Amino acid sequence: MLARQHELLEHDATADTAYRRSSAPVVALSQTIMMGPLNSIARCLSTKGAAVPFDQLSPGFNPGIDDASNKRITQLLLQETRELARAMENLLPADFDIQIYDRLLQEV
Question: Per the confidence metrics, is the pTM higher than 0.90?
Fold first, then answer.
């Protein structure tokens, strides 16, 4: 549950920033989260009769006060999710790419 919440918050925060700034690299980052770890968890949950809750952030939600603080918040979310994923790696789906967070952090 906690891993899903982190994945969704990461995706929402990066997607909002991407579309607000029309930033192709941040759009790609958001899509990577959605098509990578979030998709992996969603496929696994569906085999157990469950689903990933997808509650969009409120329109205009902005976690930080400016681009620099939004970037820092995204970095912190990625770091926290990376540590959580590492701690529960044995519970994650086999196709969950645990190294994705290192790559994403290099891009942010």
Answer: no
